[in-house]
Amino acid sequence: MPTDPLAEVPPIEDDATALFAGPRQAERRLVLLHGWGADADDLLDLGAVLLDADPAAIGLSVVALRAPLPHPAGMGRQWYDLQQPEWPQLPEARRALRRRLLALGASVPLEHTCLLGFSQGAAMAIDVATGCGPDATEALPLAGLVACSGYPHPDWQPRTPRTDILLTHGEQDPVVPFAASAALERSLAEAGGSVRRITFPGGHSIDPELIAPVREFLVRGWEAR
């Protein structure tokens, strides 16, 4: 069986590229990936909202990862430049994110980690978690995967997912077409994944009505491990 060349990675995430809430070492973890033009602090408080509790009080490690590149507008960050034709930065972006997730797995196993991404962060979460790219021999063994308002990358060919997947998308999303989540659902199901899609009559957001079902999904994933 081929070995993953990214399997041996540093065990600690650099403070400059991640924000933490709750303990750094715990039985369970939630990793958050922000969208295009946002930053890690935009999602950090989402862990407390989703679990309706202070992460430290319940022993949950929450990590919001910062995208590696500055946004061309001068504020916020990006995983890759959406304005460049054919997204040439995407291959390195997926390799780097995979390394970071594996590094976090040294303190909390990936089997006890749920991954949630929004918009471009959702596209990255789906891509990397399902083992796309030549550096990944298989999908990541996560406790759960949530993609909010995400889209498939053009060269994305998922391997069989090793976790349940929840997709959410607003029917009036003006940024990422609503049909993108249907394409994700179809491809993940064809790859053998267990996937559910929740739609809502809203735009490009994590709608308040999503909090309860996402919370239920996360808790179920952690408890199953």
Give a description of the structure.
The protein has 225 residues and is α/β, with parallel strands linked by helices. The protein is built from five helices and nine strands; from the N terminus they run ββαβββαβαββαβα. β4 (69-70) and β5 form a beta hairpin. α2 crosses α3 (120-129).
Q: Main sheet: which strands, in order across?
A: 1-3-2-6-7-8-9
User: First CA to last CA: what distance?
Assistant: 25 Å
Mean pLDDT over the full residue set: 91
Give the strand tally: 9
Biggest sheet, open or closed, and with what strands and sense? 7 strands, mixed
Strand residue percentage:
15-25%
Q: Which consecutive residue ranges, at least 5 long each, have pLDDT under 50?
A: 1-12
The gyration radius over C-alpha positions equals: 16 Å
Order of helices and strands: EEHEEEHEHEEHEH
Name the structural class: alpha/beta
Task: Describe the structure concisely.
It contains five helices and nine strands; from the N terminus they run E-E-H-E-E-E-H-E-H-E-E-H-E-H. By secondary structure, the protein is an alpha/beta fold.
What is this structure's SSE topology?
Blueprint: E1 18-21, E2 28-33, H1 46-51, E3 60-65, E4 69-70, E5 77-78, H2 90-104, E6 113-118, H3 120-129, E7 144-148, E8 165-170, H4 179-190, E9 195-200, H5 211-223
Parallel strand pairs: 2-3, 2-6, 6-7, 7-8, 8-9
Antiparallel strand pairs: 1-3, 4-5
Helix pairs in contact: 2-3
